[in-house]
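One chain is below:
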Amino acid sequence: MRLPTVVLMRSQHGSRLHPRLDDDLRHLPELLEATRAYAVRILRGLDERPVAGTPAPSAPSALPERGAGLAGAMETFARRWEPGFSGSAGPRYLGFVTGGATPAALAGDWLTGTLDQNPTSALDSGAQDLERETLAWLRELFGLSEEHSGIFVSGATMSNVTGLAIAREWLGEQRGVSVAEEGAAALGPVRVLSGSPHSSVGKALSMLGLGRAALRQVDVLPGREAVDVARLADELAALDGRPAIVVANAGTVNTVDFDDLRAIAELRERYPFWMHVDAAFGAFAALSPEHAHLVDGLAEADSVCVDLHKWLNVPYDGAVQFTRRRDLQARVFRNAAAYLGPLGETPDFIHLTPENSRRLRALPAWFTLAAYGREGHAEIVRRDIAMAARLGELVDAMPAYRLLAPVRLNVVCFTLAAAPERVGELAAAIAASGEAFLTPTVYDGLPALRAAFSNWRTTDADVRRVAEVLEAFRP
């Protein structure tokens, strides 16, 4: 394929440009080529790069007065900062459910910066149409209904904030008030119910003025992180018909447990509640035929959170939020200004997100879906699931370790069999080795480690290296 040739013209007002800017503009093709070569060296060295580690302290330098130009800045960055960056894009970074960036997503991200679109308005660009196409692809990928409309946001936390903001407006609708107009105080007491809520849910409730105290954790099933639906029904019944918000989980952080989404949705026949599903990475179970049953009922949700810089392997930051009630969403986030288009039947994204201005986060997702399709991304999901199962088997065979839960999808949760209190020390030693990165956690009162598989590069060879470092650093 022949790509278009870009001719860079020197500014007619060159004498008015800062000399560094003028020089960089004249040499931009060569500078971009140098940047490309530098990025390629980093990517080719990912297998050897320390996966994590404690960087050496670096005293901050003074703000440059004149600047060094792009080449000088790149040299300074390569010397002072890049060596201390983690290999989080690589195959043995197993912390925080962090994906990498597929080649197509990386190209899309570069072009996102190059084109520098602000897709909040349709007044000047077709960027919104590309975003809508990408959202439709994702909706199909996760098996959501045609009723679900979506938006791009920065991450799972902002997706939860957005979904719960719409839920807050729904509560107001049930009580005959508009929270968007009158404020959260008009609602009175609010109850939010969840079995194993992610920490971002409490943050969202705080930001939305509902308060962390509104969250009540419902009993979970024995030995599980999945909510006991019978106990959830009891909590809803105790509200005597008052509407509530239920935050269901499609993939908990520690053990990737799934609530029975179908059973929760059926409770709405008896009790009024908004069903928000936190499916930050669990939604991708839909791509594995052996695990798709775990997200049965996801299409019944009123709002859904999915994080794309996890298992879709797009660069940070990128997530989506879906809802059935775009009308309530627009009521919450509408933006009135003379220079903006009207709300209309198909609102501009500026009326649907917390941000007025944002980058075209859809472009990396569009590129990776266009490049590899459902089949390619399903292969990544199935391979990561298989790699997690394999590490679980290897850990289970080591006397020094004990699995704390079955490996249900892509996370292995385990602890030290004889000395759980030394897990923090173990995690630090593994990170310092540069061979792998696993995050410490607490599960059922025990200090534990989580190995989360979501990177497109991870293979069986990487699993073996992780197992070897676990064996090497066992107490």
